[in-house]
What does this fold into?
Amino acid sequence: MLKIWGRASSSNVMKVLWLCEELSIDHERIDVGGEYGRTREPFYLAMNPNALVPVIEEPDGYSVWESHSILRYLVATRRPGDPMHPAAPRQRADVERWMDWQLASLSGPMTPLFWTYVRTPEAQRDLAAAAKARDAAEALWGIVDRQLDGRDYVAGSFSLADIVLGPYLHRWFALPVSRAPMPNLEAWYERLQANHAGFAQHVAVPMT
Ligand SMILES: N[C@@H](CCC(=O)N[C@@H](CS)C(=O)NCC(=O)O)C(=O)O
It folds into this structure.
């Protein structure tokens, strides 16, 4: 059976768990990272020299790290050609640009925002830095809100783009920050909760 190495509270592990739900991929998840540690043990560094989660491991020992590479690999091996990761170059680029954008742009402000309010004791929070991150995140979510105008999902139909943005979308709505009204973004958040069991089960959960 496929092994997924990584704590369930990690946004990058959530993406993999959600895709497994979408594709009905049997798997065993093993808690490592964060309070569970083990990522600097030799067996883990042999799978991922970055000592980060997630990692997936096939029954024959083949392993992959980097969440978006894992998602692409799972579609290619479990359901090749699925519209979640289309084969046609333009449709594929429409999905993949949002995957790259999540790692290259959205992570920038969303990571400090999440860490400030969820993983930093109140007395130690840098609220000025958090305010800047909030402003930057709001501008980026505005781009997604405009992209969703007339679309149910980010790339038109449901795709890996929705899966990689989903964890941060939930955090954006769950964090104690002010938010400009974004009706398309709000409707998309509700649509994911209503229509995607994997989002409700693994992603839209209390933040820890
Ligand atoms: N770009 C990597 C980032 C992986 C990453 O930063 N993982 C975090 C959790 S979201 C981690 O391993 N943190 C240390 C830990 O949990 O011990 C990916 O997408 O997989």
